[in-house]
Structures are given as C-alpha cells and as structure tokens.
Amino acid sequence: MKQEMKPLLEIEDLACGYPGGFQVEGIHLSLPEGAFAGIIGPNGSGKTTLFRGISGTLPLIKGRVQLDGADLSKLTWKEKARKLAIVSQFSETASMTVEEYVLMGRLPYRRRFQFFDTKEDIETAHHFMRLTNTYRLRNQPMNELSGGERQMAHIACALSQHPQLLLLDEPTSHLDIMHQMQFMNLIQRLNEEMKLTVIMILHDLSLAAEYCDYLLMMKEGSEFCQGTPEEVITYQHIESVYQTVVIVKTNPVSGKPVVFPVSERRLRNGPK
C-alpha cells in the first residue's frame, strides 16, 4: 500500500478468540481509505475469528482496532454502526420484505422515540436498492429470493448505514459464477466510486487476487504474510499454507495471479 496515505483502519497486535478454545493473535494491519482488502487462508486458519474481532462481535484479548482515529471498542453500537457495516455469510431475514430489510440499515440514525421511517430513510434505502438492482424486489419476502438476490439486498442494507468500512464474510461462497461476478463487480464499483473501504473473507484465491488490492493470508491463527496479490499469491505460499500443489500463472488481461489446481493423478502420471 502507499505509505504516504493516512490509514483509515489500524489493527495493532490484535488477539481474540474463545475462552479455552481457538484464538488468533499477533495481527497487524493498516489500510488507507478506499482499500479493497481480502483475508484468505484454509478452513480453521482464523479468518472468521479475526473478522469477528475486527467487527467487535468477539471482545479483544489484546491490541486494538482503530477506524478513522476512533477505538471501535469504546464506541456505542450506534456510533459503530455509522462507521462500519457487516455482511455475514448467513444473515437472519425472517419473512420481512426486501424494503423492510434494507430500511433496517437506517436504525443507527433513528432519534429517540422515532417510530417511523423518515423521508430521508426511505430515499436512502431506495437509492441503494436501485444501485443493487433490488428495488424491483422491494415488496417480495427476503426468504423467497435467490441466493444472489439476497446478497444484493444485504449489500443495500449495509450501504444504507453510510459506513466507512464494509466487512464481508465469504459473500460469494454459495453463488454461481455469474452471480459471483455481478457481486464482485458491484463491490469494486462501490470501492472506486464511493471510496468505500472493503475487507472481504474469500475462499477463491483467483477471485481474491483479481479484485483485491491487498491480501492478508492466515495460517493456524496467525498472519502468514500480507501484501499485494502478486506478493501473496505465489505457489510457494499456497503450498506451505494449504498443503496442496498448485500452479500460479498470470491473467493475460488483468495481470493478476491465477491459481490452477493440479490433480493427484496428474502429479502421479506427469504432464499429458
């Protein structure tokens, strides 16, 4: 990252986890406004635990998380919700309509004894519903949407909070390639046009390399390495962390790394 840019997010010596259970520790990360960062690593490496530590879902054992100069652990839920928004892998939506769900993103801005949505709340929700192509679905129940439509509604709700930082936990893991690309292209546009800072947990290493400008690779609860996709996505790093053989090449269009798996049979029999 460019060192001269003032950090929006600063994570210093973070440790968090579960009493008597799994913990992550020694995490340092500094991101400027408008960064698009990915957290990668195998199952059980600590990605989601770190995500919960950053968001405040898990209390910190050590270290601190500062966003725009504010210590997140010292903010009220309203103050925190105006600074960061979270899109989890599985969000509870019950049977509310898309519009009702997206309007929940305006709760941090409600005044005391305000029981109804204001004109500003409705206009804000509708703006982000149109941006995510969910306005046409506004009267449909959330639990009747497809996986891709539901994810777009989650983003519309998160954006209605007007956050500085957007945290996403494996948002593309249950989507087909068409909806993956639609989703990632939308997040990329928001990142560029709104200067929205994004941290996303991803399993697909090629997708992470293509869209993220900075990556943190986790291994066994600790940081293994961090840097640009070109610095992080190497066959040596992947084989060390994931314990599997891969080939890493360069995308001829974007210049970003692409990861190719190699089957056991091909390793056994050699090149075709």
Secondary-structure blueprint of this entry?
Blueprint: E1 7-17, E2 23-32, E3 36-40, H1 47-55, E4 60-67, E5 70-71, H2 77-81, E6 84-87, H3 98-103, H4 119-131, H5 147-159, E7 165-169, H6 177-193, E8 197-201, H7 205-211, E9 214-219, E10 222-227, H8 229-232, H9 235-242, E11 246-250, E12 257-261, H10 264-269
Parallel strand pairs: 3-8, 3-9, 6-7, 7-8
Antiparallel strand pairs: 1-2, 1-4, 4-5, 9-10, 11-12
Helix pairs in contact: 4-5
Short note summarizing the structure:
Helices cover 32% and strands 26% of the residues. It is built from ten helices and twelve strands.
Give an overview in words.
- It is a single chain.
- By secondary structure, the chain is of the alpha/beta class.
- The chain has a single domain (7-233), classed as P-loop containing nucleotide triphosphate hydrolases (Rossmann fold).
- Helices cover 32% and strands 26% of the residues.
- It contains ten helices and twelve strands.
- The chain has helices at 47-55, 77-81, 98-103, 119-131, 147-159, 177-193, 205-211, 229-232, 235-242, 264-269, and strands spanning 7-17, 23-32, 36-40, 60-67, 70-71, 84-87, 165-169, 197-201, 214-219, 222-227, 246-250, 257-261.
- The strands form three sheets. Strands 6-7-8-3-9-10 form a six-stranded mixed beta sheet, with helices on both faces. A four-stranded antiparallel beta sheet has the order 2-1-4-5, covered by helices on one side. The chain has a two-stranded antiparallel sheet with strand order 11-12.
- Helix 6 links the parallel strand 7 (165-169) and strand 8 (197-201).
- The longest helix is centred in the C-terminal third of the chain and has 17 residues, at 177-193.
- The termini are far apart.
- The mean pLDDT is 90.
